[in-house]
Amino acid sequence: MKFKKLVKFDIKNFSAYKSARSMCVQGNIWLNANESPINNKFSIINRNLNRYPESQPKNIILKYAEYSKINFENIFVSRGIDESIELFIKIFCKPNVDKIMYFPPTYDMYRVNAEIFEIKTIKVFTKNYNNFDYDAIKKNIKCLKLIYICRPNNPTGDIMPKKILINILNISFGKVLVIVDEAYIEFCYSESIVNLIEQYPNLIVLRTMSKAFGLAGIRCGFSIAHIEIIKILKKFISPYPISTLTSNFIENFLNSNFINFMKKTVSEVLKNKIWLYKKLQKIKFIKKVFESFANYILIECFSSKFVIKKMLSKGIVLRNQNNNLGLKNCVRISIGTKIECKKLVYELKRLSYKFKYK
Ligand SMILES: *Cc1c(COP(=O)(O)O)cnc(C)c1O
Question: Separation of 306 CA from ligand 1 center, angstroms?
Answer without folding.
Answer: 27
